[in-house]
Amino acid sequence: MEKVLFAAAFFVAYTIQAVTGFAGNIFAMPVGTHVMGLSSSVAVLNAMGFFACGMLAVLNFKYINWRELAKMTCGMLPFLALGIWLDTVLPLPVLLRIYGAIIVFIGIRNLLSKEQRFLPKWLLAIIVAAAGLIQGMFVSGGAFLVIYAVQKMKDKQQFRATLSALWAILNFLYALLAFTQGHFTGDVVLTVGICIPIAIVANILGQVIQKRISQEKFLKLTYVLLLLVGLVLLITS
Question: What residues make up the domain containing 81?
Answer without folding.
Answer: 2-236
